[in-house]
Amino acid sequence: MPIRLSPFELMEKLISFPTVSRDTNIPLIDWVAGYLDSHGIQSHRYVDPEQPKHALFAHVGPWDEGAIVLSGHTDVVPVDGQAWDTDPFSVVEKDGRYFGRGTCDMKGFDALALWALVEGHYGTLRTPLQIALSFDEEIGCTGAPPMIAAMQPVLPKGAAAIIGEPSTMQAVTGHKGGTGFDTHVVGFEVHSSLLHTGVNAIMAGAKLIEWANEMNTLNMAAKPTALAAMFDPPFTTVHVGMIQGGTAHNITAKDCRFAMDFRVVPGEDKDKWATAYLSKVREVEAQMKAVVPETEIRISERFDVPGLQPEQNGLAETIVRQITGDNASHKVSYGTEAGQFQNAGYSAVICGPGSIAQAHQPNEFIEISQFNAGHDFMKKLLVRVSA
Ligand SMILES: [Zn+2]
After folding, report:
1. Cα 335 to middle of ligand 1, angstroms
2. Which pLDDT tens digit goes with each residue over 154-180?
């Protein structure tokens, strides 16, 4: 008889794999595939062509369309430089909490989803269940789109996706989209006493950063649309969180690099913001080139995550509301894979155990009561989809 692990045992196992986004997740995926296989569940993979990372998906129940997809990511954020009281890659129970990297974001949910899939496999499902485990969520949600595309020809089309990011088991029906650009201003070095003959990359970059400040001021002052008003803050934000440049106080800086990021409210065109930024970049670049023609500004897109649009009576939201009894409206300002599932034609909602406040922190934990609430959710989901 194959061993059926409990949700806690599954979480312990998943957390023992140090699947930090920069490293491989293949040992974890191999283990999951082997576990499912031991129960007679066939799993499938999306294999990244450029790096040692796999996504996994599987289907149980009738071979029909309309599955409920349980979606989680397998990567976690690094623990470098964080002061942990316990080994981050093993689960430690203390004070009513399970500590460990990923307990909250989001291997706790992954474990619950795996548990539900195996239970569903042995039960009598009327509606099929699917699991989808991605990678590279933490570095800009870049792993889910190719995984979702790979699922389409292999599995019957799912109808609703529950993205188990930590939401304290509330139904989150909307989030902002995001896009970010690495910006590299290439100036021209001269002694600062002759600055009119050089191009200071920092001071040129400052014009772009000041543009971000102006956009924030304008957006903050504008009256929000009904859709935007559901978010906090109710407007698109433009942010520079990292900057680097210059070599000496008396040399016009040759290089200045920074990250220009946009969090865009649903209903507003993300590409419009990209276009506006690029046109400002070209304007500043023209001023630079007028002094030294070989100067330039190089832009590369770092991430592009669609927002989650609130649905009108969406299936995913309805399922979660019926199970949890949560009928309030919740929107968040962090990005997830939910908008990517929605763009691929799934009804999508975010609902998972734990609080986003504990995600990415040293001594990350999930309240045991939250983990149990997640378990309870899965049991009720199984009742709902069973004949
Ligand atoms: Zn997450």
Report:
1. 9
2. 999 999 999 999 999 999 999 999 999
**Residue 179 Cα, ligand 1 centroid: separation in angstroms?**
17
Give distance in angstroms: CA of 356 to centre of ligand 1: 8
Please state the three-class secondary structure of the chain as a single string: CCCCCCHHHHHHHHHCCCCECCCCCHHHHHHHHHHHHHCCCCEEEEECCCCCCEEEEEEECCCCCCEEEEEEECCECCCCCCCCCCCCCCCEEECCEEECCCCCCCHHHHHHHHHHHHHHHHCCECCCEEEEEECCCCCCCCCHHHHHHHHCCCCCCEEEEEECCCCCCCCEEEECEEEEEEEEEECECCEHHHHHHCECHHHHHHHHHHHHHHHHHHHHHCCCCCCHHHCCCCCCEEEEEEEEECCCCCECCCEEEEEEEEEECCCCCHHHHHHHHHHHHHHHHHHHHHHCCCCEEEEEEEEEECCECCCCCCHHHHHHHHHHCCCCCEEECCCCCHHHHHHCCCEEEECCCCCHHHCCCCCCEEEHHHHHHHHHHHHHHHHHHEC
Q: Name the pLDDT band for 230 (thresholds 50, 70, 90).
A: confident
pLDDT for 331: 86
Ion ligand 1 residues within 5 Å by Cβ: 105-106, 165
Give the pLDDT confidence of 63-115 residue by residue, as tens digits.
999 999 999 999 999 999 999 999 999 999 999 999 999 999 999 999 999 99
